Amino acid sequence: MAGNDKRRGGVRKTNKKGMVVGSGGQRRRGLKGKGPTPKAEDRVTHPAKKRADQRAKADQQRAKRQASAENAPELVAGRNPVVECVRAGVPATGMYVAQGIDVDDRVTEAVREAKNRGIPVLDVPRVELDRLTSNAMHQGLALQVPPFEYAHPGEVLTAATDTGLPPLIVALDGVTDPRNLGAVIRSAAAFGAHGVVVPQRRSAGITAVAWRTSAGTAAKLPVAKAVNLTRTLKDYKEAGLMVIGLDADSDITSDELELATGPLVVVVGSEGRGLSRLVRETCDQTVSIPMSAGVESLNASVAAGVVLSEVARRRRIR
């Protein structure tokens, strides 16, 4: 009996494994994936992240310095440059004359013109003028030029439309020499253009050199700065203007420019590379200048003057 009780009511030990209740996949479904591994520069503790942050900070500081430089007045140093600026009517907020310098005709003319235009003339110690011009060769004379106030590309178009004439706008694509910029502005004013547009990046701005080269016409002709030149050209096209680009490899010459008498944008490329790809693709037509064989291509300002002269000629005889 005792043996039977042991078999029937006792716990029998065995190595055989019975049914085991599992998770039914719940544990597997409960494990959420973390997604793809972040890039090294996105990991907070990774050295690449620190380097990326340092580069971003340096870029911000560089942008601040550039913005500060653009909004700061410019000093034109040297007797000849100062005389050229006052002759050209370049806006100025002050003239600095070093104390005790030898006065010649240039200094006399510069001071006289400054006083006639109401520009303050300040006598300063030479060491102070050295500091203001960062030890440039100032020859005892410097002119303070305020930062240029650019128009908006839309304002240029509005001003052109308000004239009642077919709009004529000149756009510069990567012209980095301020002398070329000044010369283009001068030609644009001479041949009846209504404004000039320059890109915000990789382009010369209106500095004292550009002022001087333009012979003061930068004060009479609106100059706009475009954040995106390609987008601005497309906006002009949507407004009804045709866009032509100066290209030495074009089969159409300025002698065949039938678009000259209508609303027009003339795009001038950079001194070395010409038109950029996106700007070239945006143009409705490219135009070359007929020249004698064996002669190198013209620089940006001369080429602009030639084409604008042809546009003005066609508009006179239409």
State the main characteristics.
15% strand, 6-stranded parallel sheet, 4-stranded mixed sheet, alpha/beta, 318 residues, 12 helices
Task: Give me the Rg, rounded.
Answer: 35 Å
Q: Determine the N-to-C terminus distance.
A: 132 Å
% residues in beta strands:
5-15%
Q: Could you give the order of the helices and strands? A: HHHEHEHEHEHEHEHEHEEHEH
Q: Which quaternary structure do these chains form?
A: single chain
Number of helices: 12
Low-confidence stretches: none
**Class per helix and strand makeup:** alpha/beta
Helix content: 40-55%
Total number of β-strand segments? 10
Characterize the main sheet.
6 strands, parallel
The strands making up the biggest β-sheet line up spatially as 7-6-5-9-8-10
Mean pLDDT: 83
Task: Tell me what you see in this structure.
This protein is α/β, with parallel strands linked by helices. It has helices spanning 2-9, 26-30, 47-70, 79-87, 105-116, 126-132, 153-162, 178-190, 208-213, 229-238, 277-282, 300-317; strands at 74-77, 94-98, 121-124, 141-145, 168-173, 195-199, 223-226, 242-246, 264-269, 285-287. The longest helix has 24 residues, at 47-70. It has a six-stranded parallel sheet with strand order 7-6-5-9-8-10, with helices on both faces. Strands 1-4-2-3 form a four-stranded mixed sheet. The model has no long low-confidence stretch (mean pLDDT 83). Helix 4 runs parallel beside helix 5 and helix 8 (178-190) runs parallel beside helix 12. It is built from twelve helices and ten strands. Helix 5 links the parallel strand 2 (94-98) and strand 3. The chain is flat and about 100 Å long. It starts with a helix and ends with a helix.
